[in-house]
Design a protein that fits this description.
The complex is a heterotetramer, with 2 copies of chain A (382 residues) and 2 copies of chain B (292 residues).
Chain A (H helix, E strand, L loop, with lengths): L6 H17 L12 H18 L17 H14 L8 H14 L2 H13 L4 E4 L15 E5 L2 E12 L6 E7 L10 E7 L5 E6 L8 E12 L3 E2 L5 H9 L8 H21 L5 H31 L5 H24 L8 H9 L9 H12 L7
Parallel strand pairs in A: 1-4
Antiparallel strand pairs in A: 2-3, 3-7, 4-5, 5-8, 6-7
Helix pairs in contact in A: 1-3, 3-7, 4-5, 4-6, 7-8, 7-9, 8-9, 9-10, 9-11
Chain B lengths: L6 H13 L7 H6 L18 H13 L6 H9 L7 E5 L7 E3 L6 E5 L5 E5 L5 E4 L8 E4 L10 H35 L1 E2 L2 E2 L4 H27 L2 H30 L6 H12 L5 H10 L2
Parallel strand pairs in B: 1-3
Antiparallel strand pairs in B: 2-6, 3-4, 5-6, 7-8
Helix pairs in contact in B: 1-3, 3-5, 3-6, 4-5, 5-6, 5-7, 5-8, 6-7, 7-8, 7-9
Classes of the chains: A alpha+beta (382), B mainly alpha (292).
């Protein structure tokens, strides 16, 4: 067991830190969160800088244009960029972390050549069309239909929880191509151009009052068959393949951020007197221990993934605990700041946002099912 | 002992539930049905009822997530003999002094930590509007030096009864969260069955109900008994039932609950707001510990 | 809503309190918990005193020999006897609170005349033969067989969790008389004499190291058909009937006891310094509020039962919260007393005993199922 | 970074798990395999390994719920160069000073609240046997005035490493509770299916595993990193995983778990005992809060 960097890792970290130190001060001011074109421009400019410096797709295989870094180096990348306060992956999220890796694994040479380089350079933005109003936890119940018509699919239906839809060039879309097959067997993966006729984007206001997500309405949208990844009706497997790209690094930046938040909260508590309350002090300390351990769990999972080539089963365990710890953090913050928690300020915004943590990317209930059935081998109920 | 609603109390509850069922009642309507004059003596134009009736009524108001200065207006009339809208504002242990709905108020009943009460004309207050997280409960921050208050039996009554009526609001809100969660769980299908058929969802809802029921009974008992320890205990249980319930209600709603449109978030935001009205958790626990 | 006594109730309470004040000092010392015959003698002597004073079967209907008191008066009886430190119902438990009421409702005139008076007088002790090693939460899965042979049933099988079996005269026994019927339909209720040949009692050590319970082994025990309550194969209904006798008063004494325990714990904490710990102090206060509310819930449920004739649905809600609060109380006590919690003393004995609260008389999981399905009307899963 | 067991560490774990699999190893066997000399330098007859290896070994000891003065004997050898059985005893915030297994001991390592250490010959101590709740961990109460101790780097090492090794025991015990609960849930049938098929049981077990895994990783990291804050954080998580896990394991076992025979209770009683060994919760949280 070793937690310190290898020589190569230390070198990678040092160079990255140097580059960040030089580059970050040159960045323009971050755009207003409501200014979608401004956000796209900001995020893609950052991606272009990463690309020029050789840090685009750190974790992508070299033959897909990435750096081919080890999982440990990828983790260092995430840790250092977060510690340095570098921009969040933002609009590049789906392209870099989901659609891109899927195409790298499952795409034809033509698809890879056409679609991957613009992701790495920050030229093209992707969004994700998976969830539907009727298909959330039960994603495979999706009903958006695609009917083959010559060289095209004609797609009709709707999607929800699509981030960056307003400024995306492409959508990785899951559609049902065989309504008669068992639900996992009739799904197909398509790369849909967002400017295709019939695509309507409607911003979706969240409980925080912001519009981070959109709904997509698809009305006989024609998508070339050439945009299909993998075989027809094989889209479920194609999509799941990408999850095995995940090398324990999901949420790594967020853990680093939460550890900073706990320290910040302690500072606020010291300043406003809440620190004198033994209960609040101990609860803050408990969370500090929890996030410290969660960071170690990230390192453990990354090491496992690096050694075994596949991510360990630790992902669901991590997700379960991390989601709850983050919500606990912002509930605690509300008690620390007192009546300020009733104002729409910094801590409250985080608290509202945090309400999604036990829901998005697999509810805590689903995570527990996974842990119980796939890790512990408990039987499915009747 | 006959610890259940009397027929009159049942009738009051039914009338209010009907009035508040599908729409938001106007302030005039609430006044008309006597929400604020329940406890005003009959010879002063009120209904001459007691704290138990007020609590039953405020439970319904909480269930309907009514906006507006409910608690203060009732207390101003019942305890202080003042007419017009009023709100009780406690000087918090931490954070700014916030007054909800300030421009609509005639009186602000400012309670200090020691229960000293200052009855202030709302019009003259130095206050700044601030962005509130609950969209139906706009807030103003009091600026400058806070006026001193006076301790008195009346002030203590305002303090205790503000806590109790707020607990009643929370108990009603908690019951609402159960109803909304259950209604959604019965109709929303995933994996080929209503999500309410999954044991995980059932147990979440069962715990929600248990919290709501215990809080409700505690609030009723505190209204009948009037003891400070029962009141603060009821407030603790009602806050927990409302906040935890609203949180779980969102979880049951999944992604849908995260939309503005679904309005589930209003339950949580209101529960947070009412949690900070009346005696705070630290004070409630101190009172209880002091009795042991 | 009224919490105070009516004039009749106040009178009942006053007379009872007077009688307790006079009677309790006359009682002999309580026997050693391991001395079963001593316990039987002590418990039955107390029951005889109650009988002589007109307090035997306070809640039983008058035509069954009881006092026919209202549920409120029954609650007053439970509260006052607990407050006064009167003996626990002990060995009379099953007879007074389950078997007796069942016989009162379902028995023939002959059965009532033979079996009820000795219960009220403390002459005969009952135990319960319901649970089996393979039938706990799923009680209706019981497999102890009874085969009709002329005027007798021949019973073979085993039972578990039987209190007072060592000193009982009778066992209210559930047996399977029709193995081919749906599980709830093939069960029969029998009154089995404990001295019948073929009955073996084996003490069962619990995790606390004591033997409060026993196992029953039944080897071709012959029970007269005349001892059957209700029809053959109708035993499930017969048994459930008694639960509707329960008028919200179950655990009422225990709530009174827990409120005393919280005060006692606060005294201990003040004495040993634990009270200076804000966390412990607040946690104790939280429990004080919880038990106070649970007492109000008992009063509510009793009032509901009195008004409606059936117990409200509040029983499961009460059981759920009360079980957890009691366990919390003894976990908190362990923190208050520090290393003393590692010794086999007063608080630790309670803590160990308390481990059964979320299991016995319906696990908390079963209680939540009941609340969700019967009260909230959520659908059964597939 | 290579944060997983090395091949040698894996081998150590496998060897111990095999040794401890189905029966209780004798003290001689434990000594023989080097449980107490893992960290003793090779030239002093030990294995010359480090804290990570000790933690891996103690995790297995915890999983096997081994009795005896494990932690103190290891620390006496590794830190103080003392041979023979020893136990670390912390003067508690509340309650008597309790020494487990006293008659078998040669040394008592008495730690005061300020980490001052007194190394005492066990034979001379004024102590009374007291009834212990854990049947495999008999206790003696120290009587009279406690000997003073001395602060030193060695004393601090004993304090920190006692906490860490106890955390390792608890992490192993926590893993054991998961294994026992899952094994029972897979075979015990009620309502026509294994109880492990019920979502309520599945979720209980899933949370148990999550706590156990997080604790395990935290213990490993603390062993590698050696930082006091990591150690006390690991202890908190491991105590929670062990105590809560043993509690849930009993719940999964239902009535069976309540019998003496089923031996599930031993897991809980040991988790309670180890929770009070090493730094206590208040101290752990103070250290962590001090770092914020």
């Amino acid at each position: 067991m070793q937690l310190s960097d290898t020589a190569a890792e230390a070198d990678f970290r040092r160079r990255l830190r140097e580059w960040l130190g030089k580059t970050l001060p040159e960045l323009p001011a971050a755009p207003d969160p409501a200014d979608w074109p401004g956000r796209r421009a900001y995020d893609t400019a950052w991606q272009r800088r990463l690309f020029d410096a050789g840090y685009a797709g750190v974790h992508w295989p070299a033959d897909a244009g990435g750096r081919g870094a080890t999982p440990s180096e990828h983790l260092i990348f995430l840790e250092e960029t977060e510690l340095a306060g570098a921009p969040y992956v933002g609009a590049n999220f789906v392209g870099l972390l989901h659609a891109g890796p899927t195409i790298a694994t499952e795409g034809t040479p033509e698809q890879r050549a056409r679609l991957l380089p613009p992701i790495l350079r920050g030229d093209e933005i992707w969004c994700q069309g998976f969830s539907e109003p009727g298909a959330g936890s039960d994603l495979a119940a999706l009903r958006t239909r695609a009917v083959r018509d010559g060289d095209e699919y004609v797609v009709t239906g709707s999607k929800i929880w699509t981030s960056h839809a307003e400024v995306a060039d492409w959508c990785e879309l899951l559609v049902r191509t065989d309504p008669d097959a068992p639900k996992h067997r009739g799904i197909t993966w398509l790369a849909m151009p967002m400017d295709a006729p019939g695509v309507t984007v409607r911003p979706l206001a969240t409980l925080a009052g912001t519009t981070e997500f959109a709904e997509l309405f698809l009305d006989e949208v024609r998508v070339p068959v050439a945009n299909r990844l993998g075989d027809e009706n094989d889209g479920w497997r194609v999509t799941m393949v990408t999850l095995s790209f995940e090398r324990g690094t999901a949420f790594a930046s967020e853990v680093v951020a939460c550890r900073r938040e706990v320290r910040e909260l302690a500072r606020v508590a010291r300043a406003n007197g809440a620190w004198d309350d033994l209960e609040l002090r101990r609860e803050t300390a408990t969370l500090a221990a929890e996030f410290a351990a969660l960071w170690r769990l990230v390192q453990w999972n990354v090491s496992e993934a690096a050694a075994r080539g596949v991510p360990g089963a630790g992902g669901s365990v991590f997700k379960l605990r991390f989601s709850e710890a983050r919500q606990h953090l912002y509930d605690l913050a509300a008690r620390v700041v007192g009546t300020e928690a009733l104002l729409d300020g910094r801590w409250t915004a985080q608290r509202l946002q945090g309400l999604s943590y036990t829901i998005a990317a697999g509810t805590s209930q689903i995570q527990r099912n996974i842990v119980a059935q796939r890790i512990l081998g408990l039987p499915k109920g009747r | 002992m006959h610890f259940r609603l009397t027929d009159d109390q049942e009738q009051l509850r039914r009338a209010l539930r009907e009035l508040l069922a599908d729409r938001e009642a106007s302030w005039a309507e609430l006044t008309e049905v006597g929400l604020f004059s329940l406890r005003v003596p009959e010879d002063a134009g009120g209904l001459g009822l007691g704290l138990p009736e007020a609590v039953v009524a405020f439970e319904e108001a909480g269930r309907a997530v009514l906006p507006g200065p409910l608690v203060g207006t009732e207390l101003a009339a019942a305890v202080l003999g003042l007419t017009g809208r009023a709100e009780v504002v406690r000087v918090p242990a931490r954070g700014p002094v916030l007054v909800p709905d300030l421009p609509t108020l005639e009186h602000v009943l400012l309670l200090h930590a020691d229960d000293a009460l200052a009855v202030l004309p709302a019009a003259g207050l130095d206050a700044t509007p601030v962005p509130a997280v609950d969209p139906d409960r706009p807030l103003w921050r009091l600026e400058g030096v806070l006026p001193l208050g006076e301790q008195s039996p009346q002030a203590h009554r305002v303090a205790d009864e503000a806590t109790l009526l707020t607990a009643a609001l929370q108990a009603g809100l908690a019951a609402r969260t159960v109803a909304e969660a259950v209604a959604y769980a019965r109709t929303r299908e995933q994996f080929g069955q209503p999500i309410g058929a999954f044991q995980a969802v059932q147990h979440l809802c069962a715990d929600m109900l248990a919290r709501a029921e215990l809080a409700r009974v505690a609030v009723y008992a505190a209204a009948v008994d009037g003891d400070e320890a029962e009141i603060v205990g009821a407030k603790l249980l009602a806050d927990d039932a409302a906040v935890h319930g609203a949180r779980d209600c969102l979880q049951v709603h999944g992604g849908m609950g995260f939309t503005w449109e679904a309005r589930v978030h209003r339950l949580l935001k209101r529960a947070w707001a009412w949690e900070q009205a009346g005696a705070d958790r630290g004070r409630c626990l101190d009172v209880l510990a002091g009795r042991l």
